[in-house]
């Protein structure tokens, strides 16, 4: 009898154990939530989907299950909400609500009731999230270019062979561009950065950076490709390839180019806000950083520690480990050659102290603009020095391949040859006025530098003349 009783107790205990270890969550609701507006979310956005009981109209909805995606990533969001069978009753009326938040700020939400657990066969949900307020005006990415950030790449025909293009777009309106001339000797890569926008109506993608004229692309198939347009924004009538294909993953270039920006340095932390894009980057304390640091501190007004000053430099935008533990690598500026610091000036301003609000200057043209020399390379060194005495000037004629100007004392004249981004000067001559010895020496160096010029580029209001290796020889600015 005792043995039978023990066996019965053991069986009862085992049955109880089986009941106790039954999973607490026995059901799931799966689905996908898609944002109606095609907008790139900030990296700290959070997506949540909640199962609620809304049976009682006079009481707050009761939450039965929740799922959170943190970080949210980008739309569409796939979710699976677990719930307990014991919470589901015949009298219940159930729905799923979804939101996207940034901190306490609600960015997107569902605005309709989506019934679930109605007794019908279960099907995956398809929820639509709508924008809340005017947040999209600050970070909208219109559907033609698809989800951002993204990169596009393609080989397009050029006059001298084939050019490989890559375009990187970010959701804050900045772009990076690289052209690689595959059939040329080094240097054959040319980088640019700036701002992009989509024209209303045509949805043409317009890139405005350091080039003489904007670039135009037509987004195709929801951003799967970018069609290169001509200089007037019209389709190119050709049987050759005219499209850049979207890469499977964002793979930004590391542009190396001449840059202007508002630099500041305080408490061993250096940063720069780039004039071309408005992006703020940390500055690595390597390369020619110490030269920049000394010039900045010497130009800083007394008692204005940390004040931003306009600087020119040649630099590399690359990835460097974050100074904060546990943070991912971040885009950082490496100063490869410091050019100059300009106290009292700002991005697009001739004088920061001017009382009238400055109007942005139109992008100057290579030809027909009077260029005033700002810096000249010192011999074979990598340093650029300021011109002596009266600034030298340069003017490339519009109607013929003639160049004129001055070296600061004597007038200069000669010819030039222009082909795309290639530029060379020939038959340069000057008047023979008597000038101070230091100015005569400077004019000789100026003329020699012009003779070595082989390439040109325009960065905002600056004209850069470079040698065949891609080193900057001369830097001019457009004379108002």
Low-confidence runs of at least 5 consecutive residues: 1-25, 137-142, 349-362
Percent of residues in beta strands = 35-45%
Distance between the termini: 112 Å
Question: What summary fits the major beta sheet?
Answer: 9 strands, antiparallel
Q: How many E strands?
A: 30
> Radius of gyration, rounded?
32 Å
User: Which outline best applies?
Assistant: elongated
Structural class determined from secondary elements: mainly beta
Given the structure, what is the number of helices? Answer: 4
Helix percent reads: 10-25%
For the residues shown, what is the average pLDDT?
80
Task: Give an account of the 3D structure.
With 480 residues, this protein is mainly beta. It has helices at 2-20, 136-139, 289-299, 437-452, and strands at residues 27-35, 46-53, 62-69, 77-83, 94-102, 105-109, 115-116, 125-131, 150-158, 161-169, 174-181, 189-198, 205-209, 215-220, 225-228, 243-246, 256-266, 269-274, 280-282, 309-320, 330-342, 370-377, 384-385, 393-396, 402-406, 411-419, 422-430, 455-459, 462-466, 472-478. The strands form four sheets. Strands 22, 23, 24, 25, 26, 27, 28, 29 and 30 form a nine-stranded antiparallel sheet that branches. Strands 1, 2, 3, 4, 5, 6, 7 and 8 form an eight-stranded mixed sheet that branches. A hairpin with a 4-residue loop joins strand 14 and strand 15 (225-228). The model is unreliable at 1-25, 137-142 and 349-362 (pLDDT under 50).
Summary of the model, kept short:
With 480 residues, the protein is mainly beta.
